Structure formats: structure tokens, C-alpha cells
Amino acid sequence: MWELVQETVNYIKNKTNFSPEYGVILGSGLGSFTDDLKIEFILPYHEIPNFPISTVAGHKGALVFGTIHNKKVVAMQGRFHYYEGYSMQEVTFPVRVMKYMGVTKLIVSNASGGVNPNYKVGSIVVIKDHINMMPEHPLRGKNDERFGPRFVNMSEPYSVKMIDKVKEIAKAQNIEVFDGVYMGLQGPTFETLHEYKMVKVIGADCVGMSTVPEVIVARHMELETFGISVITDIGSEDNLQSITHEEVLKAANAAEPLVRQLIKELILQY
Predict the structure, then answer these.
(1) pTM for the full model?
(2) Residues 31, 114: contact at Cβ < 8 Å?
(3) Where are the beta strands (DSSP E) in 20-104?
(4) Under DSSP, is residue 233 helix (H, G, I), strand (E, B) or coil?
(5) pLDDT per residue over 122-159, tens digit each?
(6) CA distance 101 to 90
(7) What is the maximum span of the chain, computed from C-alpha positions, in angstroms?
(8) What would the 3-class secondary structure string for 241-264 be?
(9) Mean pLDDT over the full length of the chain
(10) Which of 15, 170, 187, 196 could form a disulfide with 235 if both were Cys (CB 3.0 to 4.6 A apart)?
């Protein structure tokens, strides 16, 4: 893994000569954040050595390098999911690459199903913690100490300082945001009614099929991490309807301008 990461990092550095401070992973329907960047380079995933290729609709599949004023950013337009058939090491490979390109702060976004009764479709949730219910762990296997320790402290997976900054920004701009605990499940099926009930009983507010592996690996390498979710469907007896991926994208697209604004201001102010 170490050699693969270094090979990829060297390729990207030779192509771009760009050292980003912020990494951003853009989830379903949130790919237009790159419009806020003054773009300097775009590298399609299929051109990057050792990179997987995104197969999900709504995920464009490119690394975008650019600046927001004086802040250097690399954004992933499209992420990789365990349900696509990738290993957890492949899913999280780009996070390791970002670290060795110079990234110190990671922002992760996603679309998720809500079980908190205060949420509605389009609600924006700042992730304060997560529950990992995926069947595989990205750190399973022999640990390479060059990346990080064998046992990772997960007492603060999502940076409290970054959370406080986003809440401050949201208040100043009159954007409603909620706190929430995110549960990661394998997918690709949407949850049944009783799976949604399980999510709620266990103590989560929303549920999705991504983010958790990336955050675990980010913390393994001591990247400061922030997570944000858009609620695209509500999992309750009253609201459970026939949800499709197209409807998820539609709901995420509707909330996207506000999420983009929060991410942009976080990068500018933090």
C-alpha cells in the first residue's frame, strides 16, 4: 500500500505541482462544489495510477485542483463505495493519497436517509459522530506504522472546532443545520422499515453507504475531519415511500447551494 500511494502521489505532483491544504470528498448530487473553485488542474480517475474508477450515477470521477482565494483545495468529484465491489483499501486509497499530497484537513459530504423526527427531506446535518456497521474495516490486516498507529483513537472522529465553525457560519448566514450521528451500512439496497427502526434504536440520526471508512482512514493519519450530510429521504412508517437513486440526487441537488456555501466558508475561515 505504501509503495502504491507514493507512486500515485508522485504522478499527481509531477502532473500538477500543486500542494493542497484541504481535501473535499463530494457525495451524491454534491459534485458542483467545484464551480466554487478557481480550477487549475483536472485529472480523471482513469488517468491516475492505482486509482479506482467511480461507477455510480451522480459521481463524475475526477480529481479537481483549485483555489478558493488563497486556500488550495483538491476535490474528489465522485467517491468509491464498498458496495461497488471495491475492497475497503481501494475505497479509502484516495484519502491516503491526499494526505501525502499535503492535505491536513478533510471535508466529507454525503446523501443519507434520516430517522431523526426533526429532519425533513433537504435538511442539512453536521455529522458529530458515527456508528460503523459495515461488514469490513479499512484498517484490517497488517498495520503500516508509516501511515499511523495500530489502534486509532476515535474519541473525536469529526473535529469539534470545525463543527463549531460551521455552526457559526450557518447562524451568520441564516442556514438551518442539525447535529447528527451517521450510521454506515454496506448497501446498495435502501433500508427496510425495520432497518430504519434499528438505526434509530441504536442511536443514529441518519444512515448511508459511505463516509465512515474514509473518516477512519483520515483519523488513522491524523487528518482533521469534518462531515456533512443532506437528508434525501425519511425512514419512518409515516414517510417511507418508494425511494429511488434519482430522487436522492434530486433532493441533494436542491440542498446543494447551501452545503456548497457552508463548505466554501469553512475553507475560507478555518
Answers:
(1) 0.93
(2) no
(3) 22-26, 38-44, 62-68, 71-77
(4) strand
(5) 999 999 999 999 999 999 999 999 999 999 999 999 99
(6) 17
(7) 54
(8) CCCCHHHHHHHHHHHHHHHHHHHH
(9) 92
(10) 196
